[in-house]
Amino acid sequence: MENAVNASTAGSGGQIVVAGAGYAGLHVTLRLTAKLRDHPEVELILVDRNDYHQAITELPRVASGTRAADAVRIPLQEVLATRVRFVQTEINGFDLAGRRLLTAAGPIDWRRLVLALGSRPNDFAIPGLAQRTLSLYSADDAERVWDAVSKALTAAAAAADPGQQRRLATVVVGGGGATGVELAGELAEILPQVASAHGLAADRPAVQLVEAGPTILAGSSPQLIDKAARILSDLGVQVRTNATIAATEEGFRLTDGQLVEGGVFVWAGGLKAPGLVADSELPTGHNGRVKVDRYLRVLDHPEIYVAGDLASVTDPRTGHALPPLAQVALEEGETVARNLDAELEDKPLEAFTFRDKGFVVSVGTRRGVADIAGITTGGRLAHGLKDAIEWEYRQSVKHLRGWDPV
Ligand SMILES: Cc1cc2nc3c(=O)[nH]c(=O)nc-3n(C[C@H](O)[C@H](O)[C@H](O)COP(=O)(O)OP(=O)(O)OC[C@H]3O[C@@H](n4cnc5c(N)ncnc54)[C@H](O)[C@@H]3O)c2cc1C
């Protein structure tokens, strides 16, 4: 298999290799396809372990059974122009000096590399957490969560003791950021109905949200936090703030000694960069994210761009790194595609500037909260906004399909 991938490549223009077909990587690829019309000598290669793109922002719905997993897997074949060479393989490392991506299918040479490998859950070295909790970062993860919830409800229905039923039918979500809030809200809304279908009293299931900090949705406006907390309370979600998990045993053991019991435990408490980046010689910062210059090129490696969760980009407004969000990944992808094109056209590179479009979180199946242009809304309108953003994203992926030579 060695050399299987690079044997047929290397035109005079060389290869632009995009590693990762998530929000950032797919966007770079789609945008660049059209720009390469005048550069047939350049080969554009996209690499991912999956032959589909995942609409990760919709995972809380899959994890609570309100959306099929296949509905969030978008086959790459349907969105990529034939101009793009797609390689489905696992990326195992980097040969920076040799300019090669090391993969299970053999090394892939690059002239320019775009790293867009996303994140993985961060367990903050809490004992037992990685082993005893489910995560939510892929369609497969989301299916596992829903499967575990269904099994827990079946086990609860078979239990004789109401206390035991309640414990088994309780879903505990660790981490009160947007992912935790969306998952908790969605489950709380749907579980009473699902419980009845399992022959369980509708009031038996419960959802608990455990957050180490003083508030859910940290960093958001107090108005947005208040509105989200009210909806969660209305849905019956028990929110525990200032509750730091010390270990995971039969439940979440908090630092004050309390044990939070349940039948299913999901960890949505933080993200870090993939292991292969940590093991590389790439310069990394907070949470293992790769340090980049203002053009999104790796420090001291101007031949490598980074976009999405993996890029450590400081927001000049806050002095902190931009959060791992799809909207940031898309904007960074746009800049990277423009800069790759600028290099081909011998034009100046463009510095990345984040243009914040606002923050929208769904809370349950009908309501949500949103902060847009300084205005906070909560309720059905915000949920409709979230639906509209996801719909618009899917349309944009289809419409950007790009260009194929005739
Ligand atoms: C449950 C959940 C809900 C979210 N909701 C929102 C939201 O509502 N709004 C919002 O703005 N953001 C949301 N986010 C954040 C958003 O999904 C991420 O910021 C975004 O996916 C980052 O894009 P990316 O391209 O960097 O990474 P990803 O989209 O994760 O893509 C990374 C790609 O790299 C591939 N890959 C990784 N490692 C390898 C390897 N070793 N070999 C081969 N392929 C590999 C993966 O298969 C994947 O296709 C949510 C996140 C989660 C987990």
Q: How would you characterize the largest beta sheet? A: 6 strands, mixed
Small molecules in complex: flavin-adenine dinucleotide
Number of helices: 11
Percent of residues in helices:
25-40%
Instruction: Describe the strand arrangement of the main beta sheet, using strand numbers.
Output: 5-2-1-9-21-20
Q: Would you identify the regions where 5 or more consecutive residues have pLDDT less than 50?
A: 1-12
Give the overall average pLDDT: 93
| Secondary structure: number of strands | 25
Structural class: alpha/beta
What's the N-to-C terminus distance? 32 Å
How would the global form be characterised? elongated
Percent strand: 15-25%
Radius of gyration: 22 Å
Can you walk me through this structure?
- By secondary structure, this protein is α/β, with parallel strands linked by helices.
- It has helices spanning about 25-35, 60-65, 75-80, 130, 140-160, 160-170, 180-195, 220-235, 275-280, 325-345, 380-400; strands spanning about 15-20, 45-50, 50-55, 75, 85-90, 90-95, 100-105, 110, 110-115, 120, 170-175, 205-210, 240, 245-250, 250-255, 260, 265, 270, 290, 295-300, 300-305, 310, 360-365, 365-370, 375-380.
- The protein is built from 11 helices and 25 strands.
- Strands 5-2-1-9-21-20 form a 6-stranded mixed sheet, covered by helices on one side.
- Helix 1 packs parallel to helix 10 (about 325-345) and helix 5 packs antiparallel against helix 6.
- The chain is elongated, with a radius of gyration of 22 Å.
- The protein starts with 14 loop residues before the first strand and ends in a 7-residue tail after the last helix.
- The structure holds flavin-adenine dinucleotide (FAD).
- Flavin-adenine dinucleotide binds next to helix 1, helix 2, helix 7 and helix 10.
